[in-house]
Amino acid sequence: GHNTVSNFSRPPNSLSGGSSTVQTISAPGAYSISRNDGGATQVFRVQVPPGVVPGQEFQVQAGTRVVRVRCPPNTIPGQNLQITVPPDPVVTQHTQGMAVLTSADGAGGGGAVAMNEEVARQNMINAEVAASHNSMDSMSSTAPPPSQPNAYMVTVPANVGPGQNFPVTIEGQRMMVTCPPNAHAGMSVRIVPPPPSSPPPGVQTSTSVDRPPEQLTRPSMQHRPRSTTQMFEVIVPPGVRPNQPFSLIAAGQRVLVTCPPNAFPGQKIRFQLQVSQPISKSIEPVKLSYDNERGWTRTIRVTDMKFQWVRMDDKGDIDLNKRFDMKHSAYVRKLDFLEGNDPRMRTGKVCLVPASSSDAVVESKVMHNQKEIVSSADIATAQQKTYEEKAVWFQEICSQLSEDWNDGHIRLVVRRAHLLQDALHSVMSLGPDAFRKIWRFEFAGEPGIDAGGLAREWYQLVTEQIFDPDNGLWLTSSGNQMRMWINPASEISCPEDHLIYFRFLGRIMGKALFDQQLVAGHMDTHLYKHILGWPITFAELEAVDQEFYNSLVSLVDMEDVSMLCLDFTITEETLGTKKNIELIPNGENIEVTNDNLPEYLEANLKYRLMDRIRPQLTELLLGFFDVIPEPLLSIFDFQELELLMCGMPEIDLDDWEANTVYSGLFQDNGGDDPVCRWFWEVVRENFDQETRARLLQFVTGTAGGASRGV
Model's pTM, two decimal places? Predict the structure, then answer.
């Protein structure tokens, strides 16, 4: 179905016998496909095939490649065209091998190695710089000054001398740094990234004619509403003291404002906020306004424009209670990124902190090529969209973050018989930049062009295998057989590399989300909340282990809990071996009493939902955020994230209704009860696909079927 062409740039006999720079790839691995800028372009003559009209594309065989040509205006079938084809691509195989995981604390294990002294020293310097910035933010007024370029400390790599260039990654952006004259390898130097530059007037980017069809037209953000900064004025509410935060709604956004040190209730104060549509007045007065939601809500902190969670009480005030309360308290995961021994694989630390903590914040903007492409106002606007609209917006932003086909792409070759091992070695050999490039998949020894079908199959098969409980990394949730949760004893099943597999899965999940692919595994709800940085409450324990949850709740109603002779430890059994684990330091010597019962419940929550799976969860999150900018996820709730990652299910309503178990008032009549009949009529006639999926999530705990069958 391809047209052949004549080549004007080389002898006719070279069409069939000439050599090509395109190599045949058969060995498994990750290959970087890049353009050879030094090669010569080739000119071909092609005949427009029958039935093609101006503006329509058709494929032609140009030398050793198939390229796409757009029929010019005023051209008819049978007419000859002259086309210029760029140099053939050069195939370069990654030869570095798998990147090594770095343990942020401890001596390593599970595939991770201890952090070397040079990297640890650099991380300490970075932490000091970050602490200095945070200190300046906390002392700033509610109206922040104009932003200044940030300075960063970087370490000169080995074998780099004065005047030589070396690459660094700052805020997800890759740039080149020139080693100063008085610096040497191992020395830390201070750099200030330059501001983003625009192309010269009249200069446009060009595209290759051999790019994939879906890449010919990339979504443009030029029509994205431009955000601007607006000054607002608000009266400090009664009861608010200096340096105390209070929340309000301004321009449709939930905002967290800190009362200035010299302000008092009734006084007017001003703050700046990014808005998608500027208000005509230079200063907009704001009355205290609260939405109907009670409980935890995410706000924009005006001091640094970062997201922070707060809990609103029944009066609409911020709950400042710091002691653990099983009904109201919540925690969010805090993820600190650190440099790793291998520049391709950063490391980090994860912990649970109170959801209202000033440390539990997330950036509200996305930077790309040193330019802000998403602001807090953009995110606030996107949060108001429907799920389908959110998904479209998210993919548009991901398209802007992706690398152009002309800048190179990645080809992954795997063997079906060794699929998981080949995929692991390939993906774990890549650096962060590779995850923004287009991936193409090949199964060794099998003919076929990846036009989307191979990608879907690859993601499906790889995630099916890694979520398979027989591999020892994941287990079927004790609270819901349709969900998977991390095996706390995965180190026993895969002692040498279990953490590598979790980092690998995190990268695959992130890349699948980035490329609009699906994964074949529904996780426990609290894991989606950990990805999103959503509050985790004591009630989450019920879905994880209902029997354990009920036993803890029963302690609250006891007259004297000390009669049970409990301490701050928990006993776990693995492969027949029992082990006592301290929930807090020196826990075995601390008796549980009515006075410290809240702290005992808090310690159990932290252990069950974080501490027992901390190493695995850390790598999963690090891998995920190797690909996806965290601020983009703030527009979704945990149910929407599951639908986005696992797909909208095809729900068989007949099967669902036939296998529904009724209880309570409807136990005797079941589906014949009029109320039940009305319920199913509403589901069939009034619920769209998304609403049915959310109902399925509410009833069964997941939007998909059982991972290994019901």
Answer: 0.75
